[in-house]
Every structure is written in structure tokens, then in C-alpha cells.
Amino acid sequence: MRLRAVDGADPVAVGAGLVTALDGGAPLALGFARGPEDEVAEGTAVVIATSGSTGVPKKVVLSAAALRASAEATALRIGSGRWLLALSAGYVAGLQVLVRAHLARTTPVLLDGRFTPASFVSATRELGAGPRYTSLVPAQLATLLDAADDRDVRAALASYEAVLVGGQALPPAQRDRARDLGARLVRTYGSSETAGGCVYDGVPLDGVRAAVVDGEVRLAGSTLADGYLGDPELTARTFAVDGGGVRWYRTGDAGTVADGTVAVTGRIDNVIVSGGINISLDRVERSVRTVPGLEGAVVVAVDHDRWGQASVIVAAGPDGAAASLFAAARDSVAADVGMPARPDRILLLAELPMLASGKPDRRAIAALVGGHGATDTSPGG
Fold first, then answer.
1. Phi, psi values for residue 10, rounded to 5°
2. pLDDT digits (tens, 9 = 90+) for 253-278
3. Is 367 helix (H, G, I), strand (E, B) or coil?
4. Which of 337, 334, 336 is closest to 381 using CA atoms?
5. H or E element at residue 280
6. For the structural domain made of 271-370, what CATH number should be given?
7. Which position among 83, 101, 149, 160 has the lowest Cβ density within 10 Å, counted as fewest Cβ atoms?
8. Where, residue-wise, is CATH 2.30.38.10 in the chain?
């Protein structure tokens, strides 16, 4: 089958093409220009480029069956109704909003223009009566929480049966603030390779299995992608078949599975060696994000003349707050992770570079950090 390129920034075009693709029509190419050699197997609905937040984007092949299985399992877990699309339709989280709405036989409401508290309130009203659902990234949720003094924003947020939040870890402070406002959040874990979120609040959806092998979280089930377009070697490395013939997606995430609950602790490869000590930047970032004012911070690695590598906090905020935020963050990391893991410095920006998916653009952030000189602060001093 030949792919049909569709602009992921046009949710109307994506939605129309998706309906056709789910019923066996021309599969969609989202996030990349279709090449003359791009042929896919029968049953493919979408080939979607990953966000590329930390590396080169990959072209993930998703069947209609996988997309339907994911949407149906979501409906079984949280219910069915009308959906608000507040994310780009060119990424899997936004795409799945359209799939869920289609299977529920409802018309999704498309948020108009930039995501703001006002646009969210307006779009929520368009949903009308009945169960409401939406999917957000933590940065969008933070925008709403910061505007929660407005009763219309509070009412809109609390009116949803479920607000799926994924794309990156949800800071505990955000989760608690949202709960206090009456918002019913559902933390999701998954990726393009699993047709979107497939673990909700730590519990795999029906039809999804989770296991840990050599410290790595692996996922299996009917929502798995077929592989990567034009890259059979990467497909074979990433999707492993066990001795029983079960196909598993190797997530690259470290974590545990206990009593059926999945807990992800960070990326296996997101580790630096500072002064001879291995330090997980994911653990550092989680600790930093517990500091008020740093809930959306990103922690990246830098080379260090004395210690080999160190970490830097990058966040949106006024320069005048840097000293107090940095001190609080170092204290938090020292308590949670250990003295050697304390960040080397902080960089405050007017706003963080973001991808269209709503995630921080970590490559752009790392490049910005690279343009600022490192201090000679000891990771243990």
C-alpha cells in the first residue's frame, strides 16, 4: 500500500484521512514527507514520526487494528463520550483522541488557535452535555492550574470525566493541585510504538502486558506497532520475541512491575558519570520538579572540566529568582538522590523551547546550555 502524506498540523485533514485509513483505505504519513519507496503492508493505517525530543525521529508503523485496540481499551477503562483535541493531531496522543472520538461515533471539538485558559474554556463549552474527555501534556495542565483563580477555568477543568496526562512525567505538585480543584487526572504511559498510552495510573490496559527484563520495562499486546518503516534492523532490536513467541516492545525505560503495577524510574541511558559516580538525570529532574517554581524544569547533561560531566537545571522564570531556586533544588536533590547528584548550575529562560507535541525540546535546550559556561562547583561540595 502507498502512503498518503497529510499535514499533521491540520486536524481536519488528519481526521478525514484517519477515518478512511481505519476502514482499509490509504494509510497516512504523518510528520514526514512520503518517499517513492515508502510501501507498507496491508492493514497499516498510519506511519507516524516520533517527536525526536532526544534523538533522530523514527517512522513508526501502526496498523488499524493496533489503533482500534488502544481506543477500545481506553473506553473500557475510563468510559466513552465526546473528546476535546488540545494536542497536535500529528503526534500519537492527539491522533488517538481522533480515533477514540471516531469509535465513540462522536465529533471531536478542536481547540482553536494556541492553547490558553480562554481557548480551553471555550472549547470545553462546545462539548455540550454528556461525558467529556481530553488529553493534555503537563505543560498545558500547568497553564490551566496557574489560571485556576478564574472560576471558569476551574469549572471547565473539573467538568471532564477524565483528563489523560502523558508525554512526560507528571510532577506530584501538579497532580495534587489538580486533584484539589476537582480535576480527574489519569496518568498515562506509552509511546508511538504502543499506539499511545497503554498503562493508566500504573495499570496496563486490557490486552496489554508489562514485564521487566534486565531492569528494562517491556510491553506486549494488541496495541504494539508493526515496527519502523524502512529499518528492519531497528525493528528487530526494539521488538523482541521471547521463547514463547510473545512479541515485546523494549521501551528503553528503567522500572519495576509489582502486583500488576508499572513504575517507571527513568531512561536507562539517561545517566551521567560525575566524579566517577553514576547519576540518573531522570531522578535528579524528578527531585528538582518538586521545588515550587521548577515544576516544569528540565535537567540536561554538560561536560565539566573537573568532574567529567555535570547536570544543569533549565526552567522558565525571572533571572532574579535563580539563586533561591537553585539553592532549593540542590537541597532537594541532595536529600532525594544524594550529595554528588546536586546540579552544577541553573539557567532561567523567558520560556522553554517546546516541540509541537507539547514536550520540552530537549535537544534545543541542551544546545542552549552548551552556549553558557560551566561553573567549577564540585558535585559533592
1. -110, 90
2. 999 999 999 999 888 888 888 877 88
3. helix
4. 334
5. strand 277-280
6. 3.30.300.30
7. 149
8. 192-265
